[in-house]
Amino acid sequence: MSDETQIPELGAIGLVRYFWRQLTSMRTALVLLLLLALVAIPGSLIPQNAQNPMAVSDYFEKHRTLAIWFERFSLFDVYSSPWFSAIYILLFISLIGCVLPRSFEHLQATRALPPKTPKNLARMEHFQSWSANGNELEIAKAWLRAKRFRVLESEESIAAEKGYLRETGNLFFHISLILILVGVLIGGLFGVRGSAILSQGERFVNNATSYDTISFGQISKENSLPPFTIKVDKFVAKYNTLTSAPEDYTLYVTTVAEPGATPKQQVVKVNSPITFGSTRVYLQANGYSPIVTVQDKQGNVTFQGPVPFLPQDGNLRSIGAIKVPDGDPQLGFVSSFVPTYERSTNQGAISVFPELLDPKLLFSIWQGDLGLDSGVPQSVYRIDTSKMKQISLSSLKPGEFLKFSEGTITFEDVVPWVNLQIVSDPGKSYSLIGGIVAILGLLASLFTRRRRIWIRVSAGEVQVAGLAKNGAPGLAIEMSDFVAKLKGN
Amino acid sequence: MSAQDWAYISNYAIYSAMALFTLAFFGHAYETAWAVRTPIASAETQGNLVAKTFDNSRTQKAMRIATAMMILGFIFLLLGVIARGISASRVPWGNMYEFSITGALAFTGAYLFALRKYDLRWLGVLVSFSVLLTLGTAITLLYRPSAPLVPALKSTWLVIHVSTAIISGGVFLLANVIAAAYLYLDNMETKGPRKVWAQRLPSLDALDQLSYRLVAFVFPLWTFSVIAGAIWAESAWGRYWGWDPKETWAFITWVAYAAYLHARVTVGWRGRRAAWLCLLAGSTFLFNYVYVNVWGTGKHTYSGL
Hints:
The structure holds two protein chains of two kinds.
Chain A lengths: L10 H13 L2 H15 L1 H4 L7 H10 L1 H9 L9 H28 L18 E4 L4 H11 L3 E4 L3 E6 L2 H26 L1 E8 L3 E3 L7 E4 L12 E11 L6 E11 L7 E5 L5 E3 L2 E18 L4 E6 L3 E2 L6 E7 L5 E9 L2 E4 L3 E4 L8 E9 L19 E9 L4 E4 L2 E18 L3 H20 L3 E8 L2 E8 L6 H12 L3
Antiparallel strand pairs in A: 1-23, 2-3, 3-22, 4-6, 4-21, 5-7, 7-8, 8-9, 10-11, 11-12, 11-21, 13-14, 14-15, 15-18, 16-17, 18-19, 20-21, 22-23
Helix pairs in contact in A: 2-6, 4-5, 6-8, 8-9
Chain B lengths: L2 H32 L1 E2 L15 E2 L5 H28 L8 H20 L8 H19 L13 H36 L12 H34 L7 H23 L3 H24 L11
Antiparallel strand pairs in B: 1-2
Helix pairs in contact in B: 1-2, 1-4, 2-3, 3-4, 3-5, 5-6, 5-8, 6-7, 6-8, 7-8
């Protein structure tokens, strides 16, 4: 042996071990937790692609340069960004690294007996002594057992401990967080989520082409969609006559669970979706679809059907676009629809109530190139009129028609539309179980007190003492009960 | 009685509660100011340093009256909230006005409940002032006539999710007030002995413990509220978690308090650092309530503004 101080070399394994220790340390976990809260903030202030893609494209138009930088740092997709993922993955690795060893330790400790009674009880908290009667140990044992303490007996003393549930709850809480994350992952990998706008009277067949938007999880397959159909029979919306605030939405549908099954009448409401196996169908938004027929100069029908319009305010003034690509020239009707018409001096046509009291369709007619072949995706509610020429401006009530230079437009009727959200999330039950266990674990770990009580009877003297871990309160009361029992009061 | 009568009763009850809290405020303010006595100038004191003394024997009565006013105010506020619910035949948690009056109720309730065990009456000025401020904003800026719920809110989960969120909020804010008092007094103590008026306030240790207990007590409830919200979101919006601004900030609050609990229980933070962390976590809750409700976008737009 040399006299030099030996500096242990870290080496590769040592380095890995060092980083593992650092990562699983409580301080690191704490920093990661606070960091996670911090990096979640931008997603609530900057519009997000996942929540509001329209707002993101607006942002691009208004603040071009800033938006490009935001895009580079995934600030429009905060919750799926590399940096957000990195932090929560590190946090969960740290959590697993912390919880697993503790779980094994605790599992072994579940059958362990409390440590032996310390030699010098007088130095412990809640210490009391008095002269013995002789049967104190038996009384103590019975009392401690009745209170479900774990008891280690020796010749002249008893050591008892209670409150293992604290650590059990703590571990269950942390493990359940992992379960919640697993549920989220399963949902992301195997889930399917889409939405479809249906006008009253239309039928939805559950395959990928029927959707307006649909996103599949990384592993889910297109042919996994359950083959149900939903026919929108009727949609009823009730509004407060004073405030125009919605009071009730009810959607009546006829569903067929699979080809050949008997049709079923069902009701969908905002808070009560209908279910097909693991897929649920939710009522989301609604609005009005004017039904229009467009004919060319020869009287041939070039367009017919309901066109969903996008509501703009609480009284359902809505905007929409009727696009007739099959005519020559192509026609476009830049339109707005008001369910209860009123003329305002500065805003033009407005709606004063969301129900159909005095419906009116207002539009300008454009001819030229709709730009549908350009390959750039277009809004179904708007028309790009840059290559078009306005030829007329008018308004119609249901049943009326208008002849213009290129043909006729008839406003047949108006029906409501509904936006159905169709979701299959096979992971959600795991998350739910995780959530419930988390709360139970949390309650157990925050409200269980871990404490030890000792009693020794030797040389005609009874000595008792107690120790509460984490400075938990209430032991003083328990000790005085214990002492009273021993003294026979 | 008609729905309108109940709506009037609710409004009158809220106004009465405000009057009572104002009385409570003056009672506490009088008590705080007059309990400190400066000796009357005499030949002896001439040219010497005059030591102020604390003597609340004369102001005890004011303090008792103030607390009685606080209890009465609580009762009237409770009546106001209940009548508001009856007038709209639903739970009174449909818009921000209603969230605010219920929040004020929860906050007062938390204070009065804690009062049974701890003598917190020194906090009275602060508590009555915050309650007045909340109710005042509610009545002047947030008031909306009593109306039925929008369809998205028609769910049993409204009762469960919103009530637990409001109660958690009330307790979090109380913990915040106490943490702030801690920091203030800690600052005072580093400069020397406490000023006379502050001498009867609890010790720093007691404040530290109290704010921790409040958080530890209410954190599971907040967790429950978030999970109940997730269950409701699943049945209303088709997903249990969607990073809606309100959800995001609820998550941030949760994570911040989780960090606080870990810092205290596992790492052993006490005192200043813990108090700052507590304040930080509490302010995320406030931010969620004010910013996301009023200026925020997203699906939780029920403020009625």
